[in-house]
Amino acid sequence: MKIRKEKFVLAWVFFTLLSCKEEVKKEPINESEKPNIVYILTDQWRSSAFGYAGNPDVKTPNLDAFEKTAVNFTNAVSVLPVCTPHRASLLTGKFPTTTGMFVNDLYLPSEELTMAEIYKAEGYNTAYWGKWHLDGHGRSAYIPKERRQGFEYWKALECSHDYNKMPYYDNDDTELKYWGEYSPFAIVEDANQYLAKHAKDAAPFLAVLSIATPHFPHHTAPQKYKDMYPPDSLTLNPNVTKKFEKRSREELQGYYAHATATDEAIGLLLKQIDSLNLSDNTIIVFSADHGEMMGAHDVRPFQKQLAWDESVRVPFLIKCPGINKQKGSLVNAPINTPDILPSLLSLSNIKIPEGIEGEDLSELMKNPDPNADRAALVMNVAPFAGSYKNPPYRAIRTKQYTYSKTPDGPNMFFDNISDPYQQNNLLGKPKFKKLQQKLDSTLNAKLTQIGDEIKSRDYYLNKYNYKFDVKKPAIPYWEFDNGKGVVQSPKPVLE
């Protein structure tokens, strides 16, 4: 049972029953004061892969147009750049070391208070489409209502990247179904139907579209979009090593193709919001869970988890009701994953619950200041799978600097303005000694604030009794396919 939620629900039930018993006439709540929320979460879409970000190759006309109507957080970061940790942090407003959700394929404990549960308690309808990756019961298992963390309408699956035959579960139907077309278009079509059905409801809605592209496999992108990107014509950043030039171009072809197709699907969603006259009372967010290294710094395509900008930086565009002069404004101060929930709650006139660790940045959203700055804490507590050989780290990202430490000491220090491709490590250089000390103190203060310490992977795996597979260093989600899977979670799971 969820203790905090249980108290809230019991109090609400008691209040409702008391009101009915005494036949007290209350003034109706003006639901129009509560904005709708449409949150578009994509997978592995790094911040540089957009036309509006200056990319010379990729075609993203719909998001380019949306960026001109929104506030653009140019240095948004993923708190731990891989799927499950980001999603857990997004829904709870907490850091991965607080929730214990720091590797893929864990089960988010039912005790955690989450985004949909908060909004639902405030009278919102809640809906979720696409990739979930928070249930930890295997990647194709049916997720019952009690494990959906407050989402009511449900067309989702734990995890799949078969975009042309994407499986999903339809609400309470336990039979596995398949989207009938390329999944970004199918998900948006269903979401558009949902919006049309609920556009005139008295209650507002929280709609989360979790679209799994442009995550690999890249070759499965629809051919007509791949034809837009001949590999030899594509531009590589100067930090892509010779070793990965050919492969990076091959992967970028499909990566950009997925991006352009997904942009087209998102354009249909944005058009539907406008056609239903929802724009004036809907907060729209576009973002991603992490980036993609794509051969930069001699790291093969598909990798994330690292503190480089290619992995950590993500898009974050937000359009709020009443936005006018702020249209197209830039905020260079980083927004971090735990900051998103409290900021949305504040914009929704909902009290931020105790225990949420992110910072409320709603004022920056309403009054964008490109000169504002702050330090965002990013991390990798226990590198796994393809990143297993890399050390754990904690890092901070400001609008100008990246500074990172492992259990063995500092390992990265970059001026991202003068060195946007992070090729000149400033660690130990006398000229930057005082600045390095200042950044180190800031990082240490951030860790103290959440009770975190930079310790070994084994320390944290042992703390939560997580077990990696011996041959594949990750939570063995594939064992559920043969009936041998074991749910791993920061807290015991009551089946």
UniProtKB/TrEMBL annotation:
The lineage of its organism: Bacteria, Pseudomonadati, Bacteroidota, Flavobacteriia, Flavobacteriales. This is Sulfatase-like hydrolase/transferase. GO terms for molecular function: arylsulfatase activity; transferase activity. It comes from the Bacteria. The keyword Coiled coil does not apply. It holds the Pfam family Sulfatase. Belongs to the sulfatase family. Keywords: Hydrolase, Transferase. Residues 35-349 form the Sulfatase N-terminal domain.
